[in-house]
Design brief:
The complex is a heterodimer.
Chain A (H helix, E strand, L loop, with lengths): L13 H23 L7 H26 L7 H17 L4 H23 L5 H19 L2 E2 L2 E2 L1 E2 L4 H4 L6 H27 L2 H11 L1 H6 L4 H27 L2 E2 H4 L2 H14 L6 H16 L4 H18 L5 H6 L6 H10 L4
Antiparallel strand pairs in A: 1-2, 3-4
Helix pairs in contact in A: 1-7, 2-7, 2-10, 2-12, 2-13, 3-4, 3-5, 3-10, 4-10, 7-10, 12-13
Chain B lengths: L1 H31 L6 H17 L7 H19 L9 H23 L15 E4 L2 E4 H23 L1 H11 L1 H6 L4 H26 L6 H16 L6 H19 L5 H15 L13
Antiparallel strand pairs in B: 1-2
Helix pairs in contact in B: 1-5, 1-8, 1-9, 1-10, 2-3, 2-4, 2-8, 2-9, 3-8, 5-6, 6-8, 9-10, 9-11, 10-11
Classes of the chains: A mainly alpha, B mainly alpha.
Chain lengths: ~350, ~290
């Protein structure tokens, strides 16, 4: 017999559930509206940073679904981001329109996700991490050697002229991509919000925290994990496509770069995995920090972001979100000491 | 015949390196269930340590014991101060912590040593070669293979035949039960990471003999180490050697037949296929299921 997971939730509080969606949605829409007007005040550099921030936010939320809510540290993200970028670029230079190119790339990414998701999601513990990492690396090596459809490890021509918006001036072009990335980021937030407050999200967290118990309650764990994996992969693919169109050049090693995925994971961990607002906080914090340190001190950025990860794991494993939900007492010395001791081997 | 022999000889170097690296990596994964990304930093530190000892006038192979001793201490401290604090948490915490630590150490190395390649001049006795069946076996390759064999044997003896080794095995099976019979679990954890770091140091030291030291040298090998570890499986001291042999021969064969660019892809595919059929690896025993 299948138990409706909805009944796991406090029974009969329909309207409370509604407001728990309506309130964040309202905040989200207000923020989106305000951010849509940002190009009016930002210069070209500011706009580029804002576009990057939106891209990272969308990526962070897509990883948050699989890594935060499902608790599966998937390193297959580069495969989907990269396929989104490369496949769309190949379609574009062969004369397909921009929307068709994005859809073809999406379909390809989803097929890859389906192909690798079904077997890898069965793996336990670190084996899943390693398997997904190898999927990314194998695909990167394969694409690197690909020589077909005018693609040789990269697209030598700038694809901007194929995007179909090149008639726009550079300012309008950047504004177009800012709004596109913003749209993707808001959509990603909305997907996570819908997920967070639905019975699927609840079921997924149950699987994450205790798969045996979830299965005993009748949660179809394997199917749900696969659906989330596909959802997350599809989002990553679309973001990859959009960023390739925005930047205009596609190079395999950059498109399939593990580094971006690691950065995104750091952001999600920092802000608070498995939460709606956590990744947004993480993205803001890390990008702000990068701006403060500046690009000329690359190794300093590396050391600082490493230190942040170490400190957050040791002292606040729930992420900065804890400070938001519990107030300043979450950052009190006593709490930090408790956090350090929580998982320590006795 | 001589081509096949040459492929095997060429791969001896890689097999030796991978086997030593995967041995230490499998140790900490198997016993502590931590996927130690900072292992890359340990390799790098070992490499620079050997390079500095060589600059002081020590023979690069004689420097290995010193490097290993130093890395043993580094591993102990890292486990004691950092990794001990996430042992009972979800395993993503361990990955995140060691990833952050790796960033810090590699970043500091970039600052201290600069990204420049640091190489050592090979001593004369490592330069020659012997010709067997029309294929050349260089002394350096033979030395690395012998070192891998010696370290594997040594680790096997320590884990399988000594009292401390049986304490490590007991802790890996069930930390709570181990505690009940009087094993100091935390000390065992520290010791295991220290051993693992010493092996990483040995790998770094050998890499510096054969190639050169850079801050990113460990990161470059982490993927191969992961492949070898999964191929060989956890829970058997022979696993890393077997996994390294499979990957090493495959890599050399693919590189000779199709070109080196396909080598990683073939290795990764090999692991993915193996995981479908035998989730515990070639020689692995099932310990950690969740």
């Amino acid at each position: 017999m299948k138990v409706d997971v909805l009944t796991l939730r406090r029974a009969g509080d329909g309207d409370k559930r509604l407001s728990s969606v309506a309130q964040p949605l309202l905040i989200l829409l207000c923020v989106a509206g305000a951010m849509a007007l940002l190009p009016l005040v930002l210069g070209p550099y500011g706009l580029r940073v804002a576009t990057t921030a939106c891209m990272y936010l969308a990526l962070a939320q897509s990883w948050n679904l699989i890594g935060g809510y499902a608790g599966l540290v998937s390193l297959a993200h580069p495969a989907f981001i990269g396929t989104g970028a490369v496949a769309a670029a190949i379609c574009l230079i062969n004369g397909l329109p921009i929307a068709v190119a994005a859809l073809v790339a999406l379909a390809l990414s989803l097929s890859i996700a389906l192909l690798v998701g079904a077997p890898t999601l069965r793996l336990q513990g670190h084996y899943f991490v390693v398997a997904t990492l190898l999927v990314s690396e194998a695909l990167r090596n394969f694409v690197l050697n690909l020589d077909a459809f005018g693609f040789q490890g990269g697209v030598s021509v700038n694809i901007v002229s194929h995007v179909g918006v090149s008639a726009l001036g550079s300012e309008a072009y950047n504004r177009f991509f800012y709004h596109l990335m913003l749209g993707l980021a808001i959509a990603a937030m909305a997907v996570v919000l819908a997920f967070d407050r639905s019975r699927w999200g609840l079921a997924l967290r149950t699987i994450r925290d205790n798969e045996a118990a979830a299965a005993a309650l009748g949660v179809a764990a394997a199917r749900l994990k696969l659906v989330v994996f596909l959802l997350s992969a599809g989002m990553a693919s679309l973001i990859g496509t959009a960023s390739a169109f925005w930047i205009g050049t596609v190079e395999t090693n950059d498109a399939y770069s593990l580094l971006i995925t690691f950065e995104v994971i750091v952001m999600v961990f920092l802000g608070g995995k498995g939460t709606l607002w956590g990744p947004a906080i993480g993205v803001g914090f890390v990008l702000l920090l990068n701006e403060v340190i500046g690009v000329e001190f690359a190794e300093v950025t590396q050391v600082v972001s490493g230190l942040i990860v170490v400190l957050i794991v040791l002292f606040q494993p729930e992420g900065l979100m804890a400070a938001l939900t519990e107030g300043p007492k979450a950052l009190s010395l006593r709490r930090l000491r408790e956090n350090v001791r929580r998982y320590r081997v006795s | 015949m001589s081509t096949a022999l040459q492929i095997i000889f060429d791969s001896l170097l890689l097999i030796g390196l991978y086997a030593i690296g995967a041995l230490g990596f499998a140790l900490i994964w198997g016993v502590l269930n931590v996927l130690n990304i900072a292992y890359a930093a340990f390799i790098m530190l070992g490499g620079y340590c050997s390079w500095m000892l060589w600059q002081l006038g020590l023979d690069p192979l004689l420097a290995l014991p010193f490097t290993m001793t130093l890395m043993f201490g580094v591993g102990w401290l890292v486990q004691r101060i950092l990794v001990d604090h996430v042992m009972r948490g979800p395993h993503a915490l361990g990955i995140a912590l060691t990833y952050g630590l790796n960033l810090v150490i590699v970043g500091l190395a970039l600052y201290v040593f600069t990204p420049e390649f640091r190489s050592i001049v090979l001593p004369d006795y490592l330069r020659g070669y012997t010709e067997i069946g029309g294929a050349r076996l260089t002394n350096a390759r033979a030395a690395v293979a012998a070192m891998a064999l010696a370290l594997t044997t040594g680790t096997w003896w320590f884990i399988d035949r000594t009292e401390i080794g049986s304490a490590i095995r007991a802790t890996r099976l069930d930390p709570e039960a181990a505690r009940l019979v009087g094993i100091r679990v935390r000390t065992i954890f520290n010791l295991t990471t220290a051993l693992s770091a010493a092996l990483a140091g040995a790998m770094g030291g050998l890499i510096v003999v054969l190639y050169s030291a850079t801050p990113a040298m460990g990161d470059q090998y982490l993927l191969q180490i992961l492949i070898v570890t999964v191929l060989g499986g956890l829970g058997s001291m022979l696993g890393p050697l077997a996994g390294a042999a499979v990957l090493g021969v495959c890599t050399s064969a693919v590189a000779t037949l199709w070109g080196a660019t396909y080598a990683t892809a073939v290795g990764a595919l090999l692991v993915l296929l193996l995981l479908m059929v035998r989730p515990a690896g070639l020689m692995g025993k099932r310990f950690y299921e969740g």
